[in-house]
Amino acid sequence: MRRKDIVVNVSNTETRIAVLEDNSLVELYLERSEQTSLVGHIYKAKVLNVISGLKAAFVDIGIDKNGCLPLNEIPFEEFSDLFESEIELEHEQRPSEIKLKPNQEIFVQVTKDAYGIKGPRVTSFLSIPGRYVVLLINAKNVGISRKIRQRREREMLFRIGKQIRREGMGLIIRTAAARAKSEELKREVTFLKQEWQKNLDKVQKQTAPVLIYQEPNTLIKAVRDIFNYEIRNLIIDSDTEYKEIISYLGKTSPRMRSRVKLYTDPRPIFQKYDIEEQLKNILERKVWLPSGGYIVIDQTEALVAIDVNTGKSSKEKHAERLALSTNLEALREIARQLRLRDIGGLVVVDLIDLERKENIHRMLREFKSLIRDDRARYRIGGISEFGLLAFTRERSRTSVTHALSEPCAVCKGRGRTISRSSAIGYIERWFTNNGKTIKGKMVELQTSPRLADFISLYHADTLAMIAKEYSLILRIKGDYAITDGDFKVMVV
């Protein structure tokens, strides 16, 4: 059994939550005031328009970007109310299409944060999570966490769920409930229902858009969602947040309070647990494997491409065995990187080609086993004849990579910049087009210091020819404010 810990670093600007498995960093959560997640928030929204081709409605929830509501994310009971036709629908019938009225008010919950140019994704299936259960506001089913695998345990929790659920509402029994008492589950269901009703009463007479329910901060969400009996310790370096966690657990899981430790050592907590060192590589494209192989991770808006290479690996001399061992090692690292970077959407892995089918099946089994600890949902498409493993991973929030970085000011996110040789060509063409207008004047060519050195060393004769052709007094100056590949021509 792996040893799991949660380490929390709190500063004035951000809160960082690291999940460790055998001292290896596998998950990272960040909270900054300018990057607050809206996932889980419930709004009374206003319908703006419906795009029939997308089978979705756009709704105003009171933020800069409108929410996207797929029409199949509206519960059956609300379908009949929102459907314009007067025809009565049978209990199990769902209309083939739905028409929402502009300015109509509807309850929605954010399921995915805004990403790139896309606004947040929302649903009308509302739920409020607790530590042990998720209260389904407008559903009647009882579900059990897929991580509770023992049949007897699932059957027992299902019976308890049926007994404690409220009329007209459903429940999802969470993983943490496996070691909880039925009284604790019942108490939490009552508390969640009261909280929902209290929030609902507050906004009853307010017009949309208005916030109804707000998820707690990232730290309390992490305690609620991932601080279970598998976690050995939660260590935090802030006395204020330590007391906040103890207070929360006192209401929900008093027995877990002894596992929360206040860190008082003068050495920074992320250095003490070697997390800072592991974070250095979180933005790297190339990730080295212990054997000498490596993977390359490239993220685009639509998909993530991961390439597997043997690199300097020399453990195996036989080609098939080398490919298999590198692939298996790469899949282990890929499973970790998916969780660590919180990569979502379509992922395509270019594995090293294998000839034996049993080895291909083994890789697929291994990968399915590796992602069991991941809380995100997967859909695995298998390994194609070209050695491509394609799958999707659930995306609910901005990836850690995007939270920690921003597009490069030089390359604008392309990952490459104009070469110095190409820049020389641009400069030469500029003088060809504009040289006559500045003929006989003193001119200063301003570039980045790196490009200025390159021109002085290898293309001084090019500048001399330009100066002679247009009778210019031409000098070059390096300016750190100018990016590589760019330049300015100033008449002095």
From TrEMBL:
InterPro entries named in the record: NA-bd_OB-fold, RNA-bd_AU-1/RNase_E/G, RNase_E/G, S1_domain
GO cellular component, one term: cytoplasm
Domain of life from the UniProt record: Bacteria
SUPFAM superfamilies assigned to the protein according to its UniProt record, in alphabetical order: Nucleic acid-binding proteins (SSF50249)
Assigned keywords, A-Z: Cell inner membrane, Cell membrane, Endonuclease, Hydrolase, Magnesium, Membrane, Metal-binding, Nuclease, RNA-binding
The S1 motif domain, residue ranges: 38-125
Protein's UniProt name: S1 motif domain-containing protein
